Amino acid sequence: MVRELAQNLNIGDYSIEGPTDFKFASSGIGEIVGTSLGYVFAAAGIGLLLMIISSGFTLMMSAGDAKKAAAGKTTLTNAVIGFILVFAAFWITQILGVIFGWEGYIQQMFGA
Q1: Which helix (H) or strand (E) holds 20?
Q2: For 22-56, what is each residue's pLDDT tens digit?
Q3: What is the CA 93 to chain-centroid distance, rounded?
Q4: Which of 12, 45, 69, 85 has the most CB atoms at less than 10 Å from its CB?
């Protein structure tokens, strides 16, 4: 049985005590989401890098084929649009943090 996520589980006469040092043991949903946002933004950045590399490779290997070149341009366009969305989400999070007084959480979330 996996014990990483079990906090307290009582089944009949058996009791399973979860780990007390689990990071989100006493956290609310807001703190869990806030902590995971930094990882989501990092994954989005890595995805952006991979999409740019993929589109560049497709454009270089198109060898004059208009369909392959169009596919590479479409991938690059989608990567740039995705970057703009992630960048906007980051700054909206920052602005909402200032407006609602979440500066401590925002700094903790992004390690700033």
Answers
A1: none
A2: 566 566 666 777 777 778 888 888 999 999 999 99
A3: 13
A4: 69
